[in-house]
């Protein structure tokens, strides 16, 4: 595993790079920490060049300013990582808020995306107007204002199915706790107002797949993915497990992601010349 810092406009991003093969950028959601994906990246590094990073303002990256987060900065950062570390083109997997970044990246910068897998984007504004989960972001923001980041952070994590049933890596948990106030103070409003650019996504010149975990059926983290897939006319797939399944069970989740990402890569790349030409190898009839 190689690690380093990539300078982008207004920040310096901590990144990790593993393996070889087609580039695969993994984008984290709330807390924005590359460590969420350490086990998953290890699992996939035999087939992909896996790039993970701490989103600006979070963990080991810089860029934490007293100003609201802009989604354009998030997608610009992802583009810069692909250009700087992946030769200008990559498959992209985003989880939760990272899936929102992936959707924005695909709409704004389609030239650097070879394919997008958006796993459980909490784009709650695509739900019906009378859906009670439409008010989730407002309720959590109110709890932050009333009780502070520790209480709001704990209540937020409690809304994620499966959390509390396994232990996070100690270093990831420590960094996440250091990111909670920044999350609610400066990032939260941008997640809350996000709506995908449906026209741009429907016209994307690369494959897009939406998905959610089997354990999140009917939950607010999974349902927007179904709605978005239906609106833009792309496939939807069910992944194993919970919202952060790749943390406790990276092998299980990795097997599913490997299949989808591999199919995306082979569908978007031409058949290798070796398989398009006749060879002089002798074939022995059996």
Automatic annotation (TrEMBL):
InterPro entries: AB_hydrolase, AB_hydrolase_1, AB_hydrolase_fold
Residue ranges of every copy of the AB hydrolase-1 domain listed in the record: 22-167
Domain of life: Bacteria
Keyword presence, Hydrolase: yes
GO MF entry, a single one: hydrolase activity
Keywords: Hydrolase
PANTHER family xrefs: AB HYDROLASE-1 DOMAIN-CONTAINING PROTEIN, HYDROLASE, ALPHA/BETA FOLD FAMILY PROTEIN
Protein name, entry field: Alpha/beta hydrolase
